[in-house]
Amino acid sequence: MEKLFNRSIRIAQELQKKIAVIIQYRLKDPRIKKIITVSEVQVSKDLSHAQVFVSFLESENQLNIKKDLIILNKSASYIRKLLCKIMRLRIIPNIIFYHDDSFFKGNKISFILEGLSKK
């Protein structure tokens, strides 16, 4: 039986904080003009891979989202290098960015439920 709050969960939470700060303040890519929110980080048990789920503010166009994800995934090695300097871990995981659209899906469901309650 696993612990409820094991090491990989704590590292994932810390990575989420650090990656959000790096994207906001240290990533100086002029192609990214949106606010990017790191909503979740999932780390493998051996800490070699991290899935970073991000959402973009003011971006509904799927083409723009794909372009931004490509930019983020190309800058993943730079972000990883900065994480090496910030965090004291033996293994810094390889980072892969994914789009998280759960906020928009939840908002859509909320509007549907509001429409049903008014009838």
Outline the low-pLDDT stretches: none
> What is the CATH class?
Alpha Beta
- Main β-sheet description: 3 strands, mixed
H and E string: HEEHHEH
The share of residues in helices is 40-55%
Head-to-tail CA distance between termini: 48 Å
Structural class: alpha+beta
Strand order of the largest sheet: 1-2-3
In CATH, the topology is named GMP Synthetase, Chain A, domain 3
Mass-distribution shape: globular
Number of domains: 1
CATH superfamily label: K homology (KH) domain
Oligomer: single chain
Strand content: 15-25%
Distinct helical segment count: 4
GO cellular component, one term: cytosol
Main location: cytoplasm
Subcellular location: Cytoplasm
Pfam family, one: RBFA
Explain the overall architecture.
Helix 1 packs across helix 3. The protein has a 3-stranded mixed β-sheet. The chain has 4 helices and 3 strands, in the order H-E-E-H-H-E-H. Strand 1 and strand 2 form a beta hairpin.
Offer a few descriptive terms.
3-stranded mixed β-sheet, ribosome biogenesis, 119 residues, alpha+beta, RbfA, GMP Synthetase, Chain A, domain 3, single chain, 4 helices, Ribosome-binding factor A, cytoplasm, RbfA_dom_sf
Give the helices and strands, then pairings:
Elements: H1 7-26, E1 36-43, E2 49-56, H2 62-74, H3 76-86, E3 94-99, H4 102-118
Parallel strand pairs: 2-3
Antiparallel strand pairs: 1-2
Helix pairs in contact: 1-3
Subunit structure: Monomer. Binds 30S ribosomal subunits, but not 50S ribosomal subunits or 70S ribosomes.
Keywords: Cytoplasm, Ribosome biogenesis
Pfam family, one: RBFA
